[in-house]
Design a protein that fits this description.
Helix content is 33%, strand content 21%. The chain is an alpha/beta fold. The protein has a 9-stranded mixed beta sheet. The protein has a 6-stranded mixed beta sheet with strand order 15-16-20-17-18-19, sandwiched between helices. InterPro entries: Mur-like_cat_sf, Mur_ligase_C, Mur_ligase_C_dom_sf, Mur_ligase_cen, MurD. Cell wall formation. Catalyzes the addition of glutamate to the nucleotide precursor UDP-N-acetylmuramoyl-L-alanine (UMA).
Length: 453
Amino acid sequence: MKTLNRFKSKKVLVLGLGKSGYAAAKLIRGLGADVTVNDRSDLSKNDHARDLKATGIRVVDSGHPLELLDGIDLMIKNPGIPYTNPMVQKALELNISIVTEVEIAGLLSDAPFIGITGSNGKTTTTMLIGEMMKGSNYAPIVAGNIGTALTSVVQKATEENVIVAELSSFQLLGTREFHPHAAVVLNIFDHHLDYHGTVENYAEAKARITANQTAADALIYNADSERVVTYIAEKSRAQKVPFSLKTKVADGAYVSEKVIYFKDEPIMKADEMGLPGEHNLMNALAAVAVAGVYGVPKQHIADVLRSFKGARHRLEYVDVVQGRTIYNDSKATNIIATSKALHAFPGKEIVLLAGGLDRGNTFDALIPELKKAPIKAVLLFGQTQKKLLDACEKASIPVIREVENVEAAVPEAFALSKPGDVLLLSPACASWDQYKSFEQRGDIFIAEVNKFR
């Protein structure tokens, strides 16, 4: 890890004590900074807060007092805290530099970065790239939005490693000098507009992933996405490596006659992949393009695509129980993710479990997908139950049941299905109305399914 004097004796405020805040605070403190951590929650019983205090870091909880900004040189903000937060607004007024831990990690890392962003498919693609890069001259470390703070891994990463980082728009918006050697942009949909305001602002945040790249770097991008091309690829200075499901892109990755290619060299048959669904084929092409750029042998790339079964909670194959094939797609927290999941099982009838946090949107955009998909029944729960009920009725779903939660939905799903069917949890909503996280929701789903073994 690089040791930079730029943080020595600087007054740094870490806003939000999550995984990234904890790791960043410890790291910056070790580089000689005067660190204060602030969180709106009560941290009196928080182990991380106690540990930080033991190292001489000041911890202020239960609110965001503006006086903490007095004399502050740098704010390291939790990505999920919006810029409308009064503390952040005041910091902007005071011209205090505001970054996320991605920026700190990028400045300190000896290892190069492969950064992956997009509205959907980030986690699956990041994991695929991590597995493929094991066939390169680098030892990959997978981190970032996938669950491991980047500031915790840069301390052990060397020039022999490559950090494969899943990056959200929230994280990227707080970068200034971050410079990945390879940047991957999967897609841009109308997501997180409550945070960014407009799709243009959202795209600009995503574009930060390539803002500091040069011709010595690579931008791997979705040539089928007009927004990705217009907002990001056309403006990038990096070497451009496209991937496409629609077009033969000779300088990138594509599918032709059901075979996956990279730079016109065949890799494997597309139907041999371990992951179902056209959207996962697109994720695979992105990963193939990255691996191709790094010279990973074709056989290793193919082996990974055949054996990889997916990220946890992202169209995760669970098992066959009483003849039903079970998939946990709890990470499908929006309409687009669920739409893709519904078309991942050609020739199979689906019992769908859906619902969750109401963010104010309707589900009209889901209606055409519900009509096209082979759905025999839907179980609805959570705050969006009535809105989804309306969409399902408009889509003429034959059986629609309202249930209290996932726990109640699983036995109903078994009762309404037969051997050969797919039972799919793909909520199209966030989980926070009834569960702490989409992970908890998915784990509960699997636990309830296991009762039918």
